[in-house]
Amino acid sequence: EDPSLERHFKGHRDAVTSVDFSLNKKQLASGSMDSCLMIWSMKPQMRAYRFVGHKDAVMCVQFSPSGHLVASGSRDKTVRLWVPSVKGESTVFKAHTATVRSVNFSSDGQSLVTASDDKTVKVWTVHRQKFLFSLSQHINWVRCARFSPDGRLIVSASDDKTVKVWDKTSRECIHSFCEHGGFVNHVDFHPSGTCIAAAGTDNTVKVWDVRMNRLLQHYQGNAVVNSLSFHPSGNYLVTASNDSTLKILDLLEGRLLYTLHGHQGPATCVVFSRAGDLFASGGSDEQVMVWKTNFDEADYGDVLKTQKSSTSVDGTYNTLQSEMDCGVHLKKTKPQDSGRNHEQREEETSLASTLEHIMGQLDVLTQTVSILEQRLTLTEDKLKECLENQQKIIQNKTS
After folding, report:
1. What are the pLDDT digits (tens) for 229-242?
2. Where is the composition biased (Basic and acidic residues) (predicted)?
3. pTM (whole model) above 0.90
């Protein structure tokens, strides 16, 4: 069955720049050139929240891994962290000296990496919103930066036509890929962490192995590619292009599977949900669309739970398959594994969701403390002002 359009969200007043799903798929965040962040509810009839705070276009949005925070970056040079609830409270930090194009949480939710037109990539702690360090070897705008799944590497894409891989610990650039013929709009890690995909204004998508530093696959399109997202199984890639289409690439076969027409005008952003059963896209037409994946459900329905082998483990791998030797789809599950008793699995799930909840509560607490700190600072400033004014009045009276 082909992917199908599931939901359609209207409410932005200018081009949509970025979309992301929360962990539980109950919410979808989108950023727009209209300076607003929208949080849409996936439940029909539930109202959307419009978050106002940025003073200029919102270029990027992302949910924290627990789903209890949303980070956004803007042309106003700031990054904001929001609690995606009715109040829509946020803390703001001056992140860069130019437009912030990209925000990305590490998979443990502790760090944030941002990329900017000031040609730098910066790393921050989420809880204190404290700046840690800058990576500055790009010689033009940096459009995208992402942590590897294990958090050890950072990859960045720039208008200097390079994709750079950095070691987070040593803060060194360990490799530059220079094969793109144009600006590089977007880059991301394969779920296995062994390779990266990058999209560019040269109408291509390129997949590289970051261990061997070599090009694995090259897809030539006929329009600028603005965004891409790996399916959680690691077997597919979805792209958003200026020709208004979304394309789904089969990485195992190395070919184009589907071309989807939904947007009028450039498709600017696209992302798979954490489970891979949905993907969302945004466009210059101010629309946010949610699609049902529908393809090859047998292949990934349980991938995330039991990491069962994919349907094509019959030795007919193509280049990508053999290169990603630690990819999900190469793990053959032992028969007894899939028969692990049901209770054990349920216990694990409930434990995971309890931890999830605790993490979320922590996020909210941190955020609240941070908001309180900001208010205190404001109060202190006001108090100082009052005292100074009193001094002035007294001085004027005495003089």
Report:
1. 999 999 999 999 99
2. 334-348
3. no
